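A quick aside before the break. I want you to see a complete sequence-to-structure record at least once, exactly as it would be stored in a machine-readable document. Don't worry about memorizing anything.
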Amino acid sequence: MDRAHTCRMLREGQHTYAASSSTSKPYSVIGIYGITGSGKSTLAQYVCDYEKKAGHFDPVMFVLVGKTFSVGNIFRDMLEQITQSRPSKDNDLESLKAKLKKELKDKCFLLVLDDVWVNSDNMKERRILLDVLLVGQSGSRILVTAQKTDAAAALGAQEKMQIPIPDLEEEQYLSMFMHYALEDSQVTGNDYERYKAIGRKITKKLRRSPIAAITVAARLKSESRIDFWERTSNLDVLDETMGALWWSYQQLGVDIRRCFTYCSIFPKAYILGRDEIVDLWIAQGFVNTRSNGTEELEDIGQSYFDELQTFSFLQVRRRTILGEAVGFTIHDLLHELAERVSASLSFPNIGRLTSLQTMRSFLVKEEAQGYELKQLMHLNKLRGSLIIWGLQAVGSKEEALEAHLCNKKRLRELELNFDLDKCFGPDVEAEVLEGLCPPKDLQELKILFYNGSRYPSWVLSGHHPDAPKHLRKLELYKCSQLAAIPEDSELFNGLRELRIYYCDWDWLPENMEYLVSLQSLWIWNCHMIELLPTLPQQALKRIDIHLCPVQAPFSSI
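That is the input. The structure line, written in tokens, reads:
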């Protein structure tokens, strides 16, 4: 199935594909299904971009749904694409519904719902979504991509409109591969035929996987020497899709590989902003100045990002009305690759290795034996830095206590990663953080996606026996609003550097003046903070405010 055929189906008579049970609905549903990596999303995005220019539908919206099926996020994505302004998280579901109905009323819309998963748990969310769409004009369309037919069927698609994505024919696949591998090149005539012959050998190995073709071809385009093509064609690793992606990953520079791997902290289907992810890379120390030392870190980070996009490790998922790319995602198979690389010491049941001294990261997996947080219990010789991912899978303080983090006395840096979309709730997260008391000699602490509503006791009390006593640096990324700084906290009193990124806070915590040792304050991309409180005067040397509407009184700096 190609783009032209799909667009013809979308535009046919207003009730041609309407659900048989209710032809009065103004919209009808068309489904595209196929296995991961079959090209569903690529086709849907292609159709969406074409229809935006064609003008038959208005508005045209592309929403990446994923397994969570959060109707609130779907509504925000739709409104952002219609109005070019994303609604605040403070807007409740009813206000989002009202705004969306107003924007869609009597309009012939095209809504692409990409990577939809349905189950009994999201039945209510589906009904809320479809109810809002009833205000549209007859002839509106919903285009659904999914791995199985049940997703589009649950949204009203007829069986005859469940369209499989078949494997590309051999010549079609080769043609696509050669397009990406030699796009804009000067190779012609007999030289082209030589490249094509090698390309045919490579594509036979790739088993017609679109994502494998795109990533391998992009690398060959950057290394267009015929001998490089020939060596690549003999690689056995290309015989499997994941192997082909692994090979493409290995061709990246070591710093860029590390930056890509870090992206696995985000949930699948999460839409990344360029500035957002570059800021995080810089904060993690992943962006290195080059030999001449004259380039800014932001510029180098942007070049890393651009290279990942060039080689299809990052794909455009959101554009402005003028076509500028502002949102990016990672293909599910590439996200899986990043997870595998990130969790490579996570041999299951790593807790048996009681003499282990170095472990870069540990991934808690929900309902996976051997990957529980308690695997860390006896790894008390760990030193240096440790990243713990998947804390959303921890359901209680008791589970968190089983990690015995306070006994890891040689740890100096700790990063705690919750999940943006999945959690047991803010109260449970607060209990989990309570149980994750770090060792007293910890120097740097980073917390990501924490939605808890209170500080743990090891922050509040100066009398907690195992609480950090020498913390120098604290970083918070997309965390919930913090309460006032406690006056007698040993953790805060010794803090020298505080970094806050992408937090939807109205204000910084009160009592900031209690941070008597604070030397550096970073506030990046906190769009709702407009005023700074009184800041400590004794030690503060640097305030770095980036993409924030802050109006700081002179006395605070």
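Two observations worth writing down. The chain has four domains: 3-164, 170-250, 254-336, 360-556. The two ends are 61 Å apart (CA to CA). We'll return to this after the break.
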